[in-house]
Amino acid sequence: MTPDHELPELVLPGDYLGAAEEFLPGRGTYEHGGRIYASLLGTPAVDSRDRTIRVQPRNSVPEVEEGDLVYARVDEIKTAMAICTVLSTSTSRRPVPGKPEGTVHISKAKEGYTETLSGEFAVGDVLIAKVLQGRPSIKLSTAAATLGVVAARCQVCHALLNLNARPPTCPRCGHQEHRKLAKGPHPLSPDAHGPDPG
After folding, report:
1. pLDDT category of residue 185 using cuts at 50, 70 and 90
2. Are residue 82 and residue 135 in the same domain, yes or no?
3. What is the pTM of this model?
4. Which residues, other chains included, contact 139 with Cβ-Cβ below 8 Å and sequence gap of 6+?
5. Do residues 141 and 108 touch, judged by C-beta distance below 8 A?
6. DSSP β-ladder status, 148-151 and 101-105
7. What would the pLDDT profile of 89-108 be if each residue is shown by its tens digit?
8. What CATH number is associated with residue 20?
9. pLDDT tens digits, residue range 67-96?
């Protein structure tokens, strides 16, 4: 088998990648008769830590994995958790298939004590969150300063809040609200996109 840097840039399903005695088959590959083949169209690579050979698919469908950052919409707030729909990963504009459900436990909403989740999020908010667990259920955290709400609507008139104001303020009716905000500029707030079309 050639070294990693000499692997072809693109392989097709069925292309030979290496001997099973030298490498372990990873994602996007299969073993047959002691030989490892590509199972999909993509870019091959060898993980030097465990000698696993993988194929990263072209036009891959986003998958939610532990450690990923994801965008999620808050659908329901309960006493101990916020139930969300995972929309996409932070590195892909493609939606996550199946609109999987994720949860933010009250202990993972922010650093320190959280008295109530309804004081940190509201239904309809869009969060950027870290995936603590990808399977069998998706568990999310917004505790870090860079994580939290990145888009929210006013609970009075439903216009997009200006999250760069302190506290977050509705540009339409002037109502002020509290959110556990992701630190930094918020590209989804109205001052980044012009007037709220709603």
Report:
1. low
2. yes
3. 0.65
4. 102, 103, 105, 108, 131, 132, 133
5. yes
6. unpaired
7. 887 767 888 889 999 999 99
8. 2.40.50.100
9. 999 999 999 999 999 999 999 888 776 788
Full domain range(s) for residue 20: 4-57
The pLDDT value recorded for residue 191 is 39
Into how many domains does the chain fold? 2
Q: What is the 3-state secondary structure (H, E, C) of 153-188?
A: ECCCCCCECECCCCCCECCCCCCECCCCECCCCCCC
Rounded distance between C-alpha atoms, residue 43 and residue 57, angstroms: 6
Q: Is residue 181 part of a domain?
A: no
Element (H, E) at 193: helix 190-193
Interacting residues of 113 by C-beta distance below 8 A, sequence separation 6+ = none
Q: How confident is the model at residue 152 (pLDDT cuts 50, 70, 90)?
A: very high
Tell me whether residue 141 is in a domain. Answer: yes
What's the CA gap between 152 and 189, in Å, rounded? 8
Secondary structure class of 9 (helix, strand, coil)? coil
Same domain, 73 and 145: yes
